[in-house]
Specification:
homodimer; about 160 residues; alpha+beta; Arc Repressor Mutant, subunit A; 2 domains; three-stranded mixed beta sheet; about 50% helix; DNA-binding
Chain lengths: ~160, ~160
DNA sequence: ATATCCTATGTTATAAAATAACATCTGGGG
DNA sequence: CCCCAGATGTTATTTTATAACATAGGATAT
């Protein structure tokens, strides 16, 4: 891993630790390990992928252990869930109030998380008009990233 | 069923038939039946609920049959999939170019589909800035509808 | 210190959602 | 009529997620 992502990783872990302390919650070894793994991955990963990685490390947790850790991290806003992919991904806007808006390349799965402020405004508005109160939202956008667009053109000219 | 929804049902089925004809595709009995069931339901329903209903009717299809029908209906844009709920719902804006934007009451599951034009514009914009080309998007908004807000207040004052 | 309680984790089993792989049917074009 | 592509049937399996109950471990009060 390069210096940049290493910095990012440690900064995120420090942030998570402080947040947990502030909220009187425990960032236990399993939770910490799962968060670390998610931060290190470039792409969203599934619960069972995480499970397999832990098994390789010697730990042998069962599915509920992973799902409980994921639930915790979701609740604290440290990670997001991409429902169309059955995947989880570390939040890249920790500490910033935002809505989960994701561009996902449907070919290589490269994922970019946006802040989605203007979308949030629109949604609050439209929810209001329909007498719904917005609680939380998930926006998943199936895309092609630039390299995959080029590749696609080469594949099917 | 009241006259209004009956009209809606038959109008939708007629629309689907014409569209299939125009595209040289077959709205087979299974596909037709699944679409009918989805239109009749007020809330999004799961593939296995649909399966159970067909079993009750005497038909005894296996999961692949339902999923193939659902895939067909999704491709034709007659229905949408709500990924966070593992549910499917009939499109309420047939014939209108739109993006799937859903307000879903997290208590009673009442669901409203919006056209989402302004959100689409925003997303195209932001995808562009990130060198992604938008293909399709899913926006699911967890909400509380007005009656459920009131109920919630009564439950937990 | 230790009893107690709450939270987290371990463990086993199972439910729920989706798909793979292959067989069979069917209906429209030659 | 025959053929073939597309649709459905069938069986088995994979993938994702949770239920239910047992155990451990850390903070708090006494």
């Amino acid at each position: 891993m390069d210096k940049q992502s290493s910095n990012t990783l440690s900064r995120i872990m420090t942030y998570a630790e402080k947040e947990c302390q502030a909220r009187s919650l425990r960032l236990t070894p399993v939770r910490r390990r799962v968060l670390e793994m998610l931060v290190k991955h470039k792409h969203p990963v599934s619960a069972y992928q995480l499970l397999d990685e832990l098994v390789e490390e010697g730990h042998k947790p069962a599915p509920p252990t992973i799902y409980r850790a994921l639930d915790f991290l979701l609740e604290q806003g440290f990670i997001h869930r991409l429902a169309t992919q059955n995947n989880f991904v570390a939040c890249t806007h920790l500490g910033t109030l935002h809505m989960g808006v994701f561009l996902v390349c449907k070919r290589c799965k490269k994922t970019v998380e946006l802040l989605g402020d203007s979308i949030r405004e629109t949604l609050v508005d439209q929810a209001d008009q329909n007498e719904f109160s917005l609680e939380e939202a998930l926006v998943e956008v199936n895309c092609l990233c630039q390299p995959c667009q080029s590749q696609q053109e080469r594949d099917q000219p």
